[in-house]
């Protein structure tokens, strides 16, 4: 009898913890499973609960990926960083919002970020500053081509 109560206890705890976490924000299945494992719940119980929540539509990796990617894009991150962060969270397909953006859109985002962060000072003769800004954009996950085009813009071009 004690084992049955323990199993019910684990399932109840897994369901309540998962639901509380999902009420705060979207999670990927991998993130949620990790958080439940950290609470020392059995893997079989975790899988059962997460399968049930996916069936009910409460847990959806594609919805999570889309929301997460949109938030990171709004914060000024590039495609490489967003995809890498999604991979870390167990998402192995590119969300549609990333696929919809062209290279020109990403370059425009990098230019807007540059204007906001650094301004459009002419960098042709200031290699140190150009390298500093390039490192910033690299850390943000933009491609080399997007960075190069964003750094080409100067105040005289921005009219």
TrEMBL record:
Q: Which Pfam families match?
A: RecX_HTH1, RecX_HTH2, RecX_HTH3
Cross-referenced InterPro entries, in alphabetical order? RecX_HTH_1st, RecX_HTH_2nd, RecX_HTH_3rd, Regulatory_RecX, WH-like_DNA-bd_sf
Q: Which UniProt keywords apply?
A: Cytoplasm
Is Cytoplasm a UniProt keyword of this protein?
yes
The record's GO CC annotations read: cytoplasm
A GO BP term here is:
regulation of DNA repair
Would you identify the family this protein belongs to, as annotated?
Belongs to the RecX family.
Under PANTHER family, the record lists: REGULATORY PROTEIN RECX FAMILY PROTEIN
Coiled coil where? none
Q: What range(s) does the RecX second three-helical domain occupy?
A: 60-92
- The identity of this protein, by name, is Regulatory protein RecX
User: Gene symbol?
Assistant: recX
Domain RecX first three-helical, which positions? Answer: 14-51
Physiological role: Modulates RecA activity.
Report the locations given in the UniProt record: Cytoplasm
Keyword Cytoplasm assigned: yes
Which organism was this protein described from?
Answer: Marinobacter antarcticus
Query: In what residue span(s) does the RecX third three-helical domain sit?
Result: 109-151
